[in-house]
Amino acid sequence: MPLGLLALAIGAFGIGLTEFVIMGLLPDLAADYGVTEAAAGWFISGYALAVAVGAIGLTAAVTRLPRKPVLMGLLGLFIAGNAISALAPTYEAMLAGRIVAALCHGAFFGIGAVLAADLVAPAKRAGAIAIMFTGLTAANVLGVPFGTFLGQQYGWRSTFWVISAIGVVALVGIAVLVPGTRAAGAEEPAPSLRRELGAFRSGQVWLSLTVTVLGFGGMFGAFTYIAYTLTEVSGFAATDVPWLLVLFGAGLVVGNWIGGRLADRSIDGTLLGFIGTLVVVLALLGWLAASPVAVIVLLVLMGGFGFGTVPALQSRVMRYADQAPTLASGANIAAFNVGNALGAFAGGLAISAGFGYTSPIWVGAIITAAALVVMVVAWATARAGAPHVERADAAARVTTATGSVAASAA
C-alpha cells in the first residue's frame, strides 16, 4: 500500500471527525451559547449545506491547479475552521468556524479520491479509494464517543483543538508521503474547467449521481432517527444507544473494505448486489424492529451494505467522467450530502404524519429500492451503449492480474 494513501486516510479521519463529533457536543454547545436545541442544530445543518456548496464550487475553482498543493490548502482551511470553532466566543463565530471547516470537506474527498486512484494500478483504484474512505468510517465509529469523552473531561473546546492537531498531522503526511502531480501528457490532458464540465454530458454520470442520492438517502433516512427506533420500539435503554451506534460504525468499516475489493472486480455488479441487499436489510429491520437481537444484527448489516457502495459509487462517477473526473468526483460527494438531507427530511415527514418510529426505515427501504431501479437502468444502458468498454476493462483486469500476481495477493 502506498504510504500516501495513509496520509489521505488521516485527512479523511480528521474531516469525518469534525462532521460527526458535534452530535455528542450539541447539549454543551447549546448551554454555553444560551441557544435552543434547534439553533444548535444549525452546527450540523449548516455544515452539511456548506459541504455541498464546497464540493462543487470550490472544486470547480481549483480544478486547474495541481492536486497535491490543493489538498494541502484544503487542509489548511480545515485547520483554520476548527481553530475558529475552538476559540469561538459567540454562537455566530462558532457557526462561521463550522462553515469554514465544511467548505473543504467535499473538495477534499472529491480531489482526494482522484489522487488516491492515481497512486495505484488501474485494477486497484476502487480499493485505493476505499482505503482513503476508511478514515471517514473510522471517524463515524469514534466520533461521538471520542467527542463526548473529551467534552466531559476537558470541555468541548478541547475536542476542536485535537481535531485541528489531526489536521496538521494529515497536512504534513500529504506533504511528505504523497508524490507530486504528474505532468500532463497524452494520457492525462492539462486540467481545465471546460473539460471538467464536459464530463456532465455523460448520461452515465447523471445516473451514477442519482444512485448516490437515492442509495444514501435511503440508508440515512433510516439511520437519522434510529435512536428513537432503538429506544421506543426495540426496547433498548438510552444508555445502550452509543454502543449500538458503534456496532453500526463497525459495519461501515467492514462494508467499505469489502465493497472496495469487490468493486475492483466489477463496479456495477457490486452496486447491484449491495443496493439490492440493502433494500432487503431495511425491510427486515422495519419488520423486526421490536426484536432486540434481530435489530443488532440488522444494524451492522445496514452499515455494511450501505457504506459498502461508496468506493463503487465514487469509482463509477470517475470512470464515466473519463479524463476529467475531478469535478464529477466532487459532485458525487455533494450527492452523498443531498441524499443525507433527502432521507432525513422524508423520514421526519413520516414521523410527523403519525406513522411511528419504524416509518423512517420503511421510507428508507422505498428510497433505496428506487436507487436499485436507477442502477439497473444504468447497468443496462451501459452494456447496450458501450459493450466494448466492458470487454476492454475486463481484458485490462486480466492483464494486470496475470502480470502482477504478487501485488494482487498483497
Describe the protein's architecture and organization.
It is a single chain. The chain has 410 residues and is mainly α. The protein is 82% helix and 0% strand. Helix 13 packs antiparallel against helix 14. The protein is globular and about 50 Å long.
User: Total number of β-strand segments?
Assistant: 0
Give the distance, in angstroms, between the N- and C-terminal Cα atoms.
9 Å
Extract low-pLDDT stretches: 182-187, 387-410
Please describe the biggest sheet, giving its number of strands, its sense, and whether it closes into a barrel.
none
Q: What structural class do the secondary elements suggest?
A: mainly alpha
CA radius of gyration is 21 Å
What's the helical proportion of residues? over 70%
Strand portion: under 5%
Sequence-ordered SSE layout with sheet pairings:
Blueprint: H1 3-20, H2 22-33, H3 37-40, H4 42-61, H5 67-87, H6 91-118, H7 125-154, H8 156-177, H9 193-198, H10 203-223, H11 226-232, H12 241-263, H13 267-287, H14 292-307, H15 310-320, H16 325-352, H17 359-385, H18 387-403, H19 405-409
Helix pairs in contact: 1-6, 1-7, 1-8, 2-7, 4-6, 4-16, 5-6, 5-8, 6-7, 6-16, 7-8, 7-12, 7-15, 10-15, 10-16, 10-17, 12-14, 12-15, 13-14, 13-15, 13-17, 15-16, 16-17
Keywords:
single chain, 410 residues, mainly alpha, 82% helix, disordered C terminus
What does this entry show, briefly?
This protein has 410 residues and is mainly α. It is built from 19 helices and no strands.
